Amino acid sequence: GGLKKLKTLKVDGNKLTELPGTIGGLLLLEEFDCSYNELVTLPRTIGHLHHMHTLLADFNSLTHLPPEVGSCRAVRVVSLASNQLAWLPSEMSSLQRRVLNLAHNRLRALPLSFMRLRSLSALWLSDNQSKPLVPLQNDVDSETGMRVLSNYMLPQ
């Protein structure tokens, strides 16, 4: 179709229950916002979006993600807050993301492969379960003097 050169797609707030598989044909798509809908999953063809750097799917009913989401290698920002996610595909660890928002889901654990997320600079995991997903300790950053929460298991 005529949308092959589309770079930004915002379908937020439309009460959508599913997305068409043809979304994978938007090969030049860079930003995709499907927040505030009623989606349970994303189409497998999302893995074809190799230029996508921002994926926003907050406030849906996502219960799972297709493993193909790991093929979106350019993704830098992923926000999946306020969904029903109980687990994440290990393929997501191959992404070069810098920002990952998983707050307000049902996650009990993160895939062990997430330890490879070397470029991650911000991670939100709040309000997933009663026990913390990642044990954190208070530290002071030696360069900035800022108080930070750290975990020896996360990439440094």
TrEMBL record:
Annotated keywords: Leucine-rich repeat, Repeat
SUPFAM superfamilies (alphabetical): L domain-like
Pfam family name, one: LRR_1
GO biological process terms on file: cell-cell adhesion; establishment or maintenance of epithelial cell apical/basal polarity; neurotransmitter receptor transport postsynaptic membrane to endosome; neurotransmitter receptor transport, endosome to postsynaptic membrane; receptor clustering
Protein name (record): Uncharacterized protein
SMART domains, alphabetized: LRR_TYP
Top-rank taxon, per record: Eukaryota
UniProt organism field: Petromyzon marinus (Sea lamprey)
One GO CC annotation: adherens junction
GO molecular function: protein kinase binding
Coiled coil: none
Gene3D superfamilies the record matches: Ribonuclease Inhibitor
